[in-house]
């Protein structure tokens, strides 16, 4: 591969990465906004003892968390494609690997949190909260 093609590929893969990483961030922000609204609704419904709606809201929260988790997996895959292409074009240009951003960020570092871990923790907490809310709503509804 000639240098001009590799340079163009490096630029395009960087833009691909930037676009999909930004999209992933925006998607998570949307998840947080929707989740905050649903949690507020759940709090109100619990206080007002509107149990059928409480169970439905809990189910909605769990479903939302599961869907966003799957969408995040897809987004992470697309980001990974950009990283792989970037590394390939970086090497084709003969640039030293110790300065390649995707290779450097992939190195394991002690006590380092990654977005992937934090996002999945948020999805899991919301999923469990939704399931628990649904169970509470159904149990209280059967006792009423």
UniProtKB/TrEMBL annotation:
Source domain of life: Bacteria
Keyword list, A-Z: Membrane, Transmembrane, Transmembrane helix
Transmembrane spans: 27-45, 51-69, 121-141
Protein name: Uncharacterized protein
């Amino acid at each position: 591969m000639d240098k001009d093609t590799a340079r163009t590929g490096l630029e395009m893969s960087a833009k691909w990465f930037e676009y999909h990483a930004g999209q992933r961030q925006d998607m998570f922000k949307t998840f947080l906004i929707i989740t905050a609204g649903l949690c507020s609704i759940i709090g109100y419904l619990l206080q007002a003892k509107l149990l059928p709606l409480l169970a439905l809201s809990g189910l909605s929260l769990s479903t939302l968390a599961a869907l966003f988790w799957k969408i995040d997996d897809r987004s992470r895959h697309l980001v990974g494609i950009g990283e792989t292409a970037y590394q390939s074009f970086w090497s084709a240009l003969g640039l030293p690997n110790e300065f390649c951003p995707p290779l450097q960020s992939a190195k394991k570092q002690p006590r380092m949190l990654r977005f992937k871990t934090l996002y999945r923790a948020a999805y899991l907490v919301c999923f469990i909260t939704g399931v628990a809310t649904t169970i509470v709503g159904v149990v209280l509804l059967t006792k009423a």
